[in-house]
Fold this sequence. Notes:
The protein is an alpha+beta fold and 695 residues long. It is built from 14 helices and 28 strands. It has 3 domains: 13-198, Galactose-binding lectin (Jelly Rolls), CATH 2.60.120.430; 225-390 and 572-690, Glycosidases (TIM Barrel); 396-564, no CATH class. The radius of gyration is 26 Å and the shape is globular.
Amino acid sequence: MGTIVCGVFVGALALAAGPEAGKEVVLISFDQPALPENMKQNDAEAEIVRHKHGRAMQVGFHQVDWPNVFFTPADGPWQWSAYAGVAVDIFNPENEPVDVCMRVDDDPSADGLVHCNTGDATIPAHGHGVLQVRFNTSARQRFWGMRGIPIQGPVGQGAVIDPSHVTAFQVFLSRPVKPRTLILEEVRLFGEGAAGKDLVPLPFVDRFGQYIHADWPGKLHIEAEFGERLRKEQRVLNAKPELSGRDRFGGWADGPQLEATGWFRVEKVNGKWWLVTPEGHLFFSNGMDCVGTWEQTFVDGRDGWFEWLPDREDERYEQMFADVSEAHSMADIIGGKGRTFSFYRANLLRKYGENWPERWREQAYLRLKSWGFNTIANWSQGDVLENSPMPFVASIGVAGAVRELEGARGYWGRMRDVFDENFAKAADASVAQAAGKFANNPLCIGYFVDNEMSWETIREGTLASPPDQPCRKALVDQLRAKYGSLDKLNEAWGTSAADWDSLRAPEKPSAACSADLGAFVYQFARKYFEVVNAAIKKYAPNHLYLGCRFSSAPPEAVRACADVADVVSFNLYRRSIPCEKWSGANDLGKPIIIGEFHFGALDRGMFHTGLVATRDQKDRAAHYIKYVESVADCPAFVGCHWFEYIDEPVTGRWYDGENYNIGFLDVTDTPYPELTKAARKVHAEIYERRYGPAR
């Protein structure tokens, strides 16, 4: 899933409700003649303007990566520990919604990942909104391992911070596609610090993995309802099976007939990129990620949370438990160790009986076809792919003893050094193992390799690494050859390195430095994609290389992917796709597929909306239609894949605490009717809509 460094996550409570009533104080009022003295304008222009019956601060944000207004305390750190969070009241004067972000730092070294909390909101066109960050503090330990908590909902993204030592906060935009203007009315501190920890009686999770202290449409109350729901759903699926006018791969049988090669391929038709089925029909990939049953949540260290847990010795529930030891470094993100349990699997046993794995899998195929999906997408369970009657994509991760880029660390970890001689060996072995399963299967569209890598760390991280780092040695050799001497490089770069080993990328690079580092990023990325592509064509020559699922990446890395891969992939958590970013002068010359997107809400017993918030399930369904239509309307795109099949555990998945309402199903294996109806509607219309005149 995408990096949460304020740019994709949209604060749910800014839509569902403002900060709770209670303790509140105005931190900054902009109803004054002058701009705040403790504010810096970074790629932004602020001014005090007349607004309503007084004044407010209008900010024009430039079209750069992170334009912001940056506030610091006048006399030592701010002491905000008595409050639950900080909020900004904002008015949007523009004709379209604007996504805006805020970051709160408790140390000058904050960098978007550490020593900070972040939050987002979408401010409606010509409307008001609340942008807020709820502090993620050590006082939340009662609800450890959860991104969103009962009563309070989503807390600020990022590490645990100390709100008694706040050194800065900023209001910013994340890579705006054009200049934006917003009006900031007031900054407030709200809520009682750590008040939420005493508001929720224990236990708060029932035997089905649902929140106890609320009710909502679709909540399951007794075990007998499983059978009733299954019978009702079967009637619906029988009445509405897979969509008509499709070939056996889900392609457009009623559309034009192209060359049938027996394998999936790409072709530009009528000015738009398409996937083409093995039978030669146009194919737009509507996919579902994570069709699987593995979701687990910690139960050790959470005494009193759960109304019911089975005896560990009960053989019926043996598959529902797992142990996470200190060897699982990802669990360290939330500090969890010990037993985990899957309420979803327990519910499947109750619903389908002893042969639940097979019955669940067959039900998944029926559901996806009825809802109009034609692709089983990334991260799906092995047996789901191996038995699939539908097209699917496979996932490969390059594993092996490859040196990492030691001078930089991104959200999911460090980049592997492609100049390490072991990289090509590792890529070959990893692809051989994965592709060997599906190389002769025409239902396999192709392979995603790796996911959301830290491409943005190459530029500075290469020279920040030790002198023996292979990629650093390659870059230094190139710079020596270009400039001849360190003195000439220092002059061109505006640096003062005493020797080549101490050379670092400057904080403000010169034009020459920026060009040199950009060229190396492209070279690094090009080498990565060429090595991976060669392995795929060696072991699965009939399948497509679908790229690496960019979350954020410098343009040089994206260009390198487009120069090599068959399809470029992005995980794009947005409300819709701005086609201009990938068309005209921005056209990559290759088709694009979206590996992940989703929307969530807080009206069905969940505590976090995921990365893009909506008001409720009805609004969530409307967003699904709008997003898919925006993708279909853009000539560069050949599909989009929803993340994910079921909701995450209400008490957080074991390795990072995500507990998002992002499923087509809840924990009781019950579909969200609003969302499934919307999916079938938009999928049924997709081919006629996309095949129209080129836009």
